[in-house]
Amino acid sequence: MPDPISWEFAWPYLAAALLGGYLLGSIPFGLVLTRLAGLGDIRSIGSGNIGTTNVLRTGRKGLAAATLLLDGGKGAAAVLIAGIWGPDTALTAGFGALLGHLFPVWLKFKGGKGVATALGVLLAVAWPVGVAVCLSWLAVALLFRISSLSALVSLALSPLFAWLFMKDLQLVQFMIFIAVPVWFKHHANIRRLLKGEEPRIGSS
Fold this sequence. Notes:
This protein is mostly helical. It has helices at residues 10-25, 29-36, 52-56, 61-82, 87-102, 115-125, 127-144, 147-166, 169-185, 187-195. The protein has one domain (10-195). The chain is built from 10 helices and no strands. Helix 1 runs antiparallel to helix 4, helix 1 (10-25) runs parallel beside helix 5 and helix 2 runs antiparallel to helix 4 (61-82).
């Protein structure tokens, strides 16, 4: 479906969608919530990450759940808001939201690993693909109990799901654009996985 804007003047919409998505995605909810809860700087514990898995290491499951929902929600919100101007602006905003979470300007471009935000984007862009990715994450987590492996496998499968369920080449390409930076941010996890040293879900 074409965008409801003239392609002669499309670039301002796309630029605004990218910037707006980036700023929305760069809100570090994990850091904000833990500070409001009086737990200090989440970056000083565990992996130093601002995402759900590290928030869970504080022992506050409610805060971790809230971080998951808010990080996913900001990705979905970016897509849905920019979707007013059409699917291409929606995809651009979704990618911007992921970049914002991975490289937030407020934290000197040192952000999270993007899993929850990516899932929120995928659910908003094409919910059958998003649901399939979530279910594959859950399946791998139940089998191996390794959060990073679940994220890497499920996002690697997203282009395949996009083709199977949507038969849309643009969506397949978009899924690749989403998966690649998330894989990049997991480089340390990948090294530990190869060495058999990656911690399992629930371990200290």
